[in-house]
Amino acid sequence: MPSVDKILQQMRASPVGLRFADLKKVCDHYFGKPRQAGSSHAVYKTPWPGDPRVNIQNEKGRAKPYQVRQVLQAVEQLERTGKTGI
User: Fold this and answer.
1) From CA 62, how far away is CA 22, in angstroms rounded?
2) Taking a C-beta distance cutoff of 8 angstroms, is the pair 86, 32 a contact?
3) Is 7 in a helix, a strand, or coil?
4) Per-residue b or e along 39-59, where b marks 16 or more CB atoms closer than 10 Å to that residue's CB
């Protein structure tokens, strides 16, 4: 299974075709356990005000490209601010 850094590189190169399990691994690493899981969605809390969540959806084993981009934006914001959700 690829490391979080390798998955992030893949996400930055192309948000299309990413495995849902890989996106979930990145979210678990940066945001902790999802506050909702068990269905096709996993919802993660983020440490900033506003819309404090990241929602990812499993679609036949793949992540939706727009959600991959949203996770990338959230990870970059975490890295800029130094805040972590864990």
Assistant:
1) 9
2) yes
3) helix
4) eeebbbebeeeeeeebbbbbe
| pLDDT, mean of each 10-residue run, the chain (86 residues) | 90 94 94 80 82 86 94 89 61
Nearest alpha carbon to residue 73 among 60, 56, 58? 56
Residue type, 67: Q
Contact 21, 59 (CB under 8 A): no
User: Cα–Cα distance between 45 and 85 in angstroms, integer?
Assistant: 7
pTM, two decimal places: 0.85
**At 33, phi and psi to the nearest 5?**
-70, 145
CA pair distance 7, 63, nearest whole angstrom: 13
